[in-house]
Specification:
By secondary structure, the chain is α+β, with helices and mostly antiparallel strands. It has helices at residues 32-44, 74-88, 121-139, 145-157, 201-207, 215-228, 241-256, 259-271; strands spanning 11-15, 21-26, 54-57, 61-65, 105-108, 111-114, 169-171, 180-182, 188-190, 196-198. Strand 8 (180-182) and strand 9 (188-190) form a beta hairpin. Helix 3 runs parallel beside helix 7, helix 5 (201-207) packs across helix 7 (241-256) and helix 7 packs antiparallel against helix 8.
Length: 272
């Protein structure tokens, strides 16, 4: 059983000697800093997208390069989409694998997240991204046994739901709109990852969840780059958005309850 107890994470701007300003972030719990720093380095490895440089890390604190915020633009969104496609296609060792040197016990926001490698996407998604959070929702009293049964049936049917099993992609893992940082250098940066190996449709589905600016430009740039690389998105990927959104919706339902409970159940019915 995953433990929902957490201490939150503090964030600061700090001035170093010489006036340089850095971003300092506290971890959400044990292993959070190690997981995030490993994820940032993994995503930045090939320079496909701008990612904040890790300047320092210990058990509790992460120190990153700081850039002032800017305004989103269509041009930056298209570049971001192309870079995201390239990042995904760098690949991963398996479905559910952590970044190199990253711990198996990681975090997504304020919730614990387990990165354990599985042979197929369906096995990984059921065991690590649906079932643990359904059990958390039951433990928190926001799901009934009948609610949990909806997800159990869906997990049993995952191999039949039309998703094309691709090679594992290098995922950000928590790519909602707040983790696309529009900086004053005119680019969109990746921040706050919950990085792991998974299916690339998952990051795209997350971008659709909370209203990402210039989303159609991001998707257009992504599809163009993927097609040029000889790896177009599989037919019907838009029909599977709700399937991939189950993970973040279940996390939100476990942490916050409320409307996320209804959204998670509705997404399960739509996906299945």
């Amino acid at each position: 059983m995953l433990d929902l107890r957490r201490r939150g994470s503090a964030v600061y701007l700090a001035a170093l000697g010489g006036g340089r300003v850095v971003f300092v972030k506290g971890g959400s719990g044990e292993g959070a800093v190690a997981a995030e720093s490993a994820g940032l380095r993994w995503l930045a490895e090939h320079g496909d997208l701008p990612v904040p440089e890790v300047l320092g890390a210990d058990d509790d604190w992460l120190v990153l390069r700081y850039l002032p915020g800017g305004r989103p633009t269509a041009e930056a969104a298209e570049r971001f989409g192309r870079g995201l496609a390239a990042t995904h296609l760098r690949g991963a060792a398996g479905f559910g694998c952590p970044p190199p040197a990253g711990p198996a016990d990681a975090w997504i926001g304020l919730a614990p997240m387990r990165n354990t490698t599985h042979d197929t996407w369906a096995a990984f998604y059921a065991a690590e991204r649906i079932q643990p959070y359904v059990r958390m929702c039951v433990d928190e009293g926001v799901f009934t046994g009948d609610d949990a049964a909806v997800f159990d049936k869906l997990c049993a049917r995952l191999p039949e739901l039309g998703l094309v099993e691709e090679a594992p992609a290098r995922l950000h893992g928590d790519l909602w709109s707040g983790n696309v940082y529009w900086a004053d250098d005119g680019e969109a940066w990746l921040i706050d990852p919950a990085a792991h190996g998974g299916h690339r449709e998952a990051d795209l589905a997350m971008l659709h969840l909370f209203g990402t600016p210039f989303l159609q430009h991001i998707v257009g740039g992504y599809r163009e780059a993927a097609e040029q690389a000889g790896a177009p998105l599989a037919d019907g990927w838009r029909d599977r958005v709700k399937l991939h959104q189950l993970f973040p919706l279940l996390v939100h339902a476990a942490l916050f309850g409320g409307g996320y409970v209804r959204e998670a159940l509705a997404a399960a019915h739509t996906a299945g």
